[in-house]
Each structure stands twice: as structure tokens, then as C-alpha cells.
Amino acid sequence: MRLPLNSKAIMIMTLICFVWGLQQVAIKAAEKEVSLTLQIAMRSGLAALVIYVYAKIKGEKFSMEKMTLFAGVCAGVLFALEFFFLSEGLRYSSASHMAVLLYTAPLYSAVGLHIFSAEEKLTARQWFGVMIAFFGLVVSMINTVAHAGFDSINYGDLCGLLAGLAWGCTTVVIRTTPLSVCSAKQTLLYQLSGAFIILMTISLFNDGYHFKPGTVAYGSLIFQTLIVSVISYLVWFSLLRNYQVASLSMLTFMTPFFGILSGIIILHEKVQANFIAGTVLLIIGLLFITVKTHQQHSKNKSVE
């Protein structure tokens, strides 16, 4: 039985959300030294190696059934697409934008699970939340960053939305396939390995490829590999096993705000008021979806 949130879980989730919000800023900050796609490929490969060695030391065995392997490949491809679109988005838009648009993923996963899972149908209240979130996206996408051109911002923001869509689809795959009963390490290993293979291939044939690492790039890669891709993900999966999922999901909505603040403070990005308003509407809409899910889980448990 999963536990309700306590002060320890809230503190850990706050730190995780801060790390996730800082992720886009770290990638963007190192862009001049290492191309964006190559950064993500390298960090994914290194993190996959660390997790594999860690799993072997712990004596953990992975399922190699065909359906599990197929689902793992799908999750790996979707994870690679998520970060490919994220890297493209960071080329043309701000880290603040990517921190918000990437976290449209719960919107897509909710709709996807409504279609593919009989146990996770959206209620009328949740569909209302979907409409609010969509309206928030429209508001936030209207010429939002003062220092960038309208055309490039729209392309970058579109990539951010596609990254969120890929993440949402990954969630649907994990929840509706044999991966749902696999260990967190195996699922994460599929995702990181897929990202490494696909993104490394793309980066090597990309005109923007460059690798001249300095202090910023090394620091960013260490942060992305160990803190983001290994520690934060494993801690997140551990929390999911011990605490109520819906409550944890609500706390992840702190991430976009940490992302915006990090972009403003570290990269000196300028964000217009309509982007902030759109972000607030988006999060309110997602809360309508998640809070209702939480209420349903509580009701189901009381019936049981």
C-alpha cells in the first residue's frame, strides 16, 4: 500500500523538481562548447553504463521476453525523440520555454491512457482540465520571449510541444505494456540506451556538430549524467513505489517554475507576461486532471 505524502517526500520532490527545472538550463549553457544533441547522447550513454553496472552489482536480473523487449525498444525510441526535440527546441527557443512545454507530457499521457487503458478513462472534470491546459498553451505561445524572433520562437516552441508529446507517449507505453511490471532500472536502461544510440547517430551527421568541451561543458555533463539521469530518476522511481502516484505527480508541477527562474537568473532570459499567464493556466488544467485522479484512487481504496 502506497503512503500519503509526508514532509520528507515533499522535500525530496522539491529537490528533484529543482534538478529537472535546471536540466534545460545546463544543456543550453554548454551549447557553445558541445552541440546540444551530442550532449544528451553522451549523458544518456554514460548514465546507461552507470545504471547497468549498478544493477549487476545488486544482482538484479532483467526480463528478456519478446514483448518486454519490443516495448523497451519503443520506449527507447520515444525517449530519444523526446530529447531530440528538446535539443532542437533549445537551439531556437529559451530554456524557460522548454522547461514549461516539456511538462505538457501529463496532458498527452492522460489522453493516451484514456484511449488505451480501460482503467484510466477521463471524467468530465478532467476533460475540462484538458481544455484549460490547451488554452494555456495557446496563450503562452503568442510571441512570448522578447529578445527572440517570432518565427524561430514558434519553431522552437513546436519542438518543445513535440518533446512533451514523446514523453507522454513514453508514459503510455510503460503503463500499458509488460514494462509496467519491470524494474525501474530495466525501464530506464531501455530509455537511456535508445537515446544514446539514436542521438549519437543523429549528432554525428548534424551540420551543427561540435565538441570543444571546457569547464562549463564538463560541469554540465557531470550534472546531467549523475544528478539528472541517474540519481534523480532512480529516486523518482523509488518514490513512485512508496508514495501515492497522483500526489507525487502534482508536485512535479513545481518543475516549470524552477525552469523559468533558472533561465532568468542563470541565462538572463526575458519572459513576457503572457507566457507566465499561459503557464499558470496550463498547470491549473493539469491539476484538474491529476487531482481528480487522486480522488478516484482514494475512493477506490476505500471501496477495497
Automatic annotation (TrEMBL):
Signal peptide: none annotated. The chain crosses the membrane at residues 36-55, 67-86, 98-116, 128-149, 155-176, 188-205, 217-236, 248-267, 273-291. This is Threonine/homoserine exporter RhtA. Its main location: membrane. It is a multi-pass membrane protein. The keyword Coiled coil does not apply. The keyword Zinc-finger does not apply. Residues 8-140, 155-290 form the EamA domain. Belongs to the drug/metabolite transporter (DMT) superfamily. 10 TMS drug/metabolite exporter (DME) (TC 2.A.7.3) family. It is found in: Cell membrane. InterPro entries: AA-Vitamin_Transporters, EamA_dom, EmrE-like. Keywords: Cell membrane, Membrane, Transmembrane, Transmembrane helix.
